[in-house]
Amino acid sequence: MSFDGFRRSYIERGIVKTLEKMAKCGATAEVSVVLLQYMYPSFPSRTIPNHYAIATGLYPESNGIVDNVVYESSFSDQLRDVRRARDVRYFNGQPVS
What we know:
97 residues, mainly alpha, two-stranded antiparallel ribbon, 5 helices, 2 strands
């Protein structure tokens, strides 16, 4: 799961009851909590650039995805919402293996 604008302190403050219930039922990623200290969001702080950085291990300036909406004149004459783009030419990074 990914939550835009979600602070870790929300869990500590007890204001996300559904997530707490999921954790009690066994849907947790405790190892990830340890790794959070090493995980920093990429800039710009947008959903798709950060998801793609996680998947490829490349920062936005290296993977080419710098916003949720992109314009690439060489293969489209309009703005594209990357979340709905199916054209693989938008995605230059290779997944982390």
